[in-house]
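Lecture 7 notes: from sequence to structure.

We start with a single chain of 215 residues. Read the sequence below before looking at the structure.
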Amino acid sequence: MMKRAFAGASLLLLLALLGCGTATPPLAPARPSAGADRLYVIDRGWHTDIGLPVAELDGRLAAVAAAFPGATSLTIGFGDRAYLLDRTSDFLDMLRALLPGRAAMLVTSLRLPPAAAFGADNVVTLAIATPQLDALEGFLAADFATDAAGRPLRLAAGPYPGSLFFASDATYDALHTCNTWTVEALRAAGYPVSSAFVIFAPQAMAAARALQTGD
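Now the structure, written as tokens:
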């Protein structure tokens, strides 16, 4: 589980004081055809990831994938940079992570299918048409900070084998969590979801499962 996930307990204590985010309307539904590409929404406890097969990646995300030779899929997650990179964090650090701060991206490489790696009950697989996949990749790539040559900026080794932290110029806070970001990614791909009021992993997974069933 991503280290940022443990700060979820402090979210429960502070949510009533912090209020709710600004609502954003959902986009029109995407209607992928049979045989379309796919993406994964992965439940990792308090945290959710977006997963994509490496074969579907191009452009700037292909540059991210190049850091993981042999991977068949990548999972991408969003979190507070200072908290993620501090391996000695305590409860006060968790609380500080709820204030606006620079984000980091955690990328984990897989050689197994996501359902085998995380358990079928923790993975929602969605079909995605090529235009929506391009839009999703654009959304994800935009959150990776790059150097002057356009290469993604690595920060440190991640907490799991085959994982790395990358820099992001995006902002993390109590009302824009990893789970908010996951639903924003789905919305950027054209799915009929809204990230308004999404804070916790069960909310993000419920949105993904509703897309899977067509509810």
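The longest strand covers residues 101-110. Keep this in mind for problem set 3.
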